[in-house]
Amino acid sequence: GLQKLKVEEYHGLVFGTFDHTLIDVESHIGETAAHYIKRLFNRPVKLLGTHRQYMNSNWKVYAENLRDPYHASLLHLFHCTFGLYRSSQEGGISLDPTLRHSVLTAKNSAAENDTSEYETDAISSYDQTYTLADPSLLAGRPEFEDCKSAVIQTIFPGLVLQQIANTLAVRQVLPKGVGNFELVWVYFGYADDDAEMDLIRQKQFNLVGPAGLISMEDGEATELVQQTAWSNPDALECIEMEGIDIQRESSLLSEGNIRAFWQVYREMLEI
Fold it and tell me: How crowded is the C-beta side of 206, counted as CA atoms within 13 Å?
């Protein structure tokens, strides 16, 4: 018959493994990751929709993208122009002791409206000539006491828990080959959401997913990186930010999450 899985439900998330000797979920993910799961799944949820996206890229390119806090303000015009996420915001990264799991957070603050650095440096991801034909797209409600506007949590190797404004989602990264992977988006709200909040979430889903006003650029970027890597497989190029530390940082200008991912990956593969 079919091989049995060891299954555990953890605050609404269902985890499964073929290894029946593994420890429980909370011990595996650690205190920091557990805190943010409990924050997001603080009460019963309801499913609002799903997307499936196929990308022509190695899954690890997307894994880097998820863990990179400063790419968002350089790549995503929507983030910077409309103030959802800027590197000048209050925020930072957190890592569990094993370095497997990470959290990237950004918080609403006065810096949301400070665009002076973007204007002075002529950063292309900020363009004040862009406007919304329907400003209600960004209308929402504060719903977390910590006032965080964005939380991207990664559970090694390929699980992502997301809060961007009022969009709540689980992403699963499913490798399909050396140069392909599938990304599954599962959108949810809370069971006690009223009709107005349901509509807010549904409208904000236009920010993410395969054709999302923000996320579509991530898909394109990962494929461009893969195409460049394959165009000259014998070449080696490394562009890294200053520093080599892997630690918690109270800044959105950090590569700590990326370094942690690759260190764990190399240790697991013994390379």
Answer: 13
Query: How far is residue 9's CA from residue 25's CA, in Å, rounded to a whole number?
Result: 9
3-state secondary structure of 235: coil
CA-based angle 264:266:270, to the nearest 5? Answer: 120
From CA 39, how far away is CA 46, in angstroms rounded? 16
Helix then strand then coil, % of the chain, to nearest 5:
35, 25, 40
Nearest to 158 by CA among 263, 72, 59: 59
Angle at 31 between CA 71 and CA 15, to 5 degrees: 85
CA distance 40 to 266: 30
Contact 123, 179 (CB under 8 A): no
CA 96/CA 30 separation, integer angstroms: 6
pLDDT, one tens digit per residue, over 117-152 is 555 555 555 567 777 888 888 888 999 999 888 899
**Average pLDDT over every residue of 36-42:** 96
Show me where the domains of the chain are located. Answer: 6-231+238-269
For the whole model, what pTM was predicted? Answer: 0.86
Superfamily of domain 6-231+238-269: Naphthalene 1,2-dioxygenase Alpha Subunit; Chain A, domain 1 (3.90.380.10)
